[in-house]
Amino acid sequence: MVQAWYMDEVAADPWRPHRAEPSRPVSLEQLRRLGVLYWKLDADKYENDPELEKIRKERNYSWMDIITICKDKLPNYEEKIKMFYEEHLHLDEEIRYVLEGSGYFDVRDEDDRWIRIFMEKGDMITLPAGIYHRFTLDEQNYVKAMRLFVGEPVWTAYNRPADHFAARGQYLAFLAQMA
Question: Is the peptide bond preceding residue 22 cis, with omega within 30 degrees of 0?
Fold first, then answer.
């Protein structure tokens, strides 16, 4: 099952866990109230997984590819890692399914505090459009993930501040309803 927690305030070494002291775990229900959805799937059978196909059909995830993030496989690795870790939002959902390795998605809660979500093999997550977030590898320095989209992929990230986008306003309205 996925692990999530509030982060400490230390900015150095983003690949470390950065658990707040005392520890403040975050439940799947808390993530759901932020619009973050989670599934645990069998990554060994992702090519023929009826559960994954069911999710894709229900949520209209029609496009997918696979990305491997490590020094040997990702062109412009250092630049990309810095870009992924820059706080940003998207105008569409971000869907990632970890097939191998691990990493961290950090999301902002309703009070603008960082929550770190540890993702490992078999974890699939959907971040809602308009949520501020970032991604980094952990100490293993390797992840292979499926990226899913509704329709054609849109890769544009809007670094914070990006509050003027309709997707951000809609997300804030969603948070207000959940409060």
Answer: yes
